[in-house]
Amino acid sequence: MARIELVDWPHTLENSGETVLDTMMINGVPFPFSCGAGDCGACKGHVLQGKVEHLPCPESTLSKEERDQGLVLACRCTPKSDIRLQTLGELVHMPPVVQQFGRVVHQEVRGGGVAVIRVALRKAVEFRPGQYFMLKFGALPARAYSVASVPGSTELEFHIRRVEGGKTSTLVTQPGLTGQYARVEGPYGHGYWREQHAGPIVAIGGGTGLAPMWSIVLSALSGSARREVHLYYAARTADDCYWEQELVELARRHPHVRLHNTLSRLQTPDARAPIPQRAQRVTDALREDFKSLAGAKLYIAGPPAQVAAVSAVARELGLDNRDLHTDPFSDNPEHHQDSWFKRTMHRWHIRREARHWRHHPEPAQR
């Protein structure tokens, strides 16, 4: 059994062979993470002492040079000895995870196979803009969806694209969902808005990754209406776009906000489009628009490959790892994050129950 000493954490942790991130989760450490699968880099840390075994992960997320410098992904490494570790992010206590049932009070099926739904809860739940919740309808699998609304309301808004073979997304994107109940659990995720940061915001939403970016941008503008914001809406084709009118209204109310609609498979931009179209990948747009991203905060949600590509370009443009906040998700109906999430939560519940019975032993039976 290895021991993990985490800088700025008061207790030494015991590792029984699981990943470093699993150890953090089991022990309730607010270690930053997002995908739990090595795609985003949110759980990157620096091993100051000791050795770890690296599990496979994309080179774009953790390069060989970074490994040689002692950097690791907590979700993709296991200790080979006692280690001393420092996170590159922040140890911040997040809003508590709660579970309650909600009722679907609004459903609108839009273009690109996307449904916009609102779920009304009995009481408002605390979350940070950019976080996600697990939704479960009846006996269907629970799935992670980022929230598009801002904190403070008893209604949560979600943007959900139909995934081929996805049971939950198929239900949600078919008419007739209004009135059904869902179990809502969360919040989760560390790709949230850092409200103490006063510099420029670059928010990139790939497909329905626009949902958490919408929450972040609206929250940021409510606190400082004149702050510098660049919002990129990235999709393949114009048919995949579903949120144009809301973006147009945002631009009307905040004319200083820079809106970009990048379409990777577009041949010729449509001059009549409600938002100016750019026939290019969002990575190419970033290189065109910025000489340097130093001092900015970049938030991105979208497919893992897109998140990895944007992250690599952002670092090329001088963005510090601490200023990159990601939320990668997949169109795979059986995405590995779901199995990782279930496994980690199972371990966490077992450890929590063990602690409970050590302090509150069951009374003797009469």
Report on this model:
This protein is an alpha/beta fold. It has 3 domains: 114 residues, Ubiquitin-like (UB roll) (Roll), CATH 3.10.20; 91 residues, Beta Barrel (Elongation Factor Tu (Ef-tu), domain 3), CATH 2.40.30; 128 residues, Nucleotide-binding domain of ferredoxin-NADP reductase (FNR) module (Rossmann fold, 3-Layer(aba) Sandwich), CATH 3.40.50.80. 24% of the residues lie in helices and 29% in strands. It is built from 8 helices and 19 strands. Strands 11-10-13-8-9-12 form a 6-stranded antiparallel sheet. Strands 17-16-15-14-18-19 form a 6-stranded parallel sheet, sandwiched between helices. A 5-stranded mixed sheet has the order 2-1-7-3-5. A hairpin with a 6-residue loop joins strand 1 and strand 2. The C terminus is likely disordered.
* Overall form: globular
Major β-sheet, in short? 6 strands, antiparallel
Write out the strand line-up for the largest beta sheet, numbering strands in chain order.
11-10-13-8-9-12
Spans where pLDDT lies below 50 across 5 or more residues: 333-337, 352-366
CATH C-level name of the largest domain: Alpha Beta
Structure classification: alpha/beta
CATH architecture of the largest domain: 3-Layer(aba) Sandwich
Number of DSSP helical runs: 8
Mean pLDDT: 88
Number of domains: 3
User: H/E element string?
Assistant: EEHEEHEEEEEEEEHEEHEHEEHEHEH
Our estimate of the beta-strand percent is: 25-35%
Task: Give the tally of β-strands.
Answer: 19
Span between N and C termini? 40 Å
Q: What's the Cα radius of gyration?
A: 21 Å
CATH superfamily of the largest domain: Nucleotide-binding domain of ferredoxin-NADP reductase (FNR) module
